[in-house]
Amino acid sequence: MTFPLIRPSRSPCRRTLLAGLLATLLASGAAEPAGSAPAASTSLFAGHFLLRDTSGAAVDSDALSGRPYGVFFGFTHCPDICPTTLARISLALRGIADPDLRIYFVTVDPERDTAAALGPYMESFDPRIVALTGDRAAIDEAVASFGAVAERTALAGGGYTYGHTAAMLIVDENGLIADRIAAEGEEAALTARLSRLARPRPKAGP
């Protein structure tokens, strides 16, 4: 199964706007209208990735068995969809206390998104969002195995951009894609749906 493709605009990404974007989204405080239906969930096996985080440590999805997590594909030069989605996820995570919850931001542009480049970019977002990169073969495996799409398009002047799947995929503890959250989702609804991944708090003693 493949998911909808988002084609970004052709203007360059301005990383200095990320902190302002977070503040703007927080100030908006939008909530999902009452009675709104959640996006349709899916039920299929998750894909596989063996990639590296910004510290260079290997992250193997096989080792995540028994733990739910989220996956979002994107790239740091994305002008709008990626920073906006990461900002919304960050705001949603403020309402979730689980420190072990992980959302993996998998680059589709490993040639530019090295660990050294991803580290500073991710400083604007919640630390539970973990950026992953790798060689081209490893990225292509991750994209294809999760049923995502990443299409490279040349730009005038010799640059390039990507049209890519923008939905965040939620993988449950059984290794199934249990939900698919659209990039434009509101924070309140996003928090509610991400909360399903969180470990329950231990009950207080007598």
Automatic annotation (TrEMBL):
Spell out the disulfide connections: 78-82
Report what the protein is called: Protein SCO1/2
Q: Which domain of life is it from?
A: Bacteria
- Answer yes or no on keyword Signal: yes
Q: Where does Cu cation bind?
A: 78, 82, 164
> Per UniProt, which keywords does this protein have?
Copper, Disulfide bond, Metal-binding, Signal
Asked if the keyword Disulfide bond belongs to this entry, the reply reads: yes
Q: Which family does it belong to?
A: Belongs to the SCO1/2 family.
Q: What is the lineage of its organism?
A: Bacteria, Pseudomonadati, Pseudomonadota, Alphaproteobacteria, Hyphomicrobiales
Gene Ontology MF term list:
metal ion binding
PANTHER family, alphabetized: ELECTRON TRANSPORT PROTIN SCO1/SENC FAMILY MEMBER, LINALOOL DEHYDRATASE_ISOMERASE DOMAIN-CONTAINING PROTEIN
User: Any signal peptide, and if so, which residues?
Assistant: 1-30
Query: Which InterPro entries does the record match to this protein?
Result: SCO1/SenC (IPR003782), TAT_signal (IPR006311), Thioredoxin-like_sf (IPR036249), Thioredoxin_domain (IPR013766)
Q: Where is the Thioredoxin domain?
A: 26-199
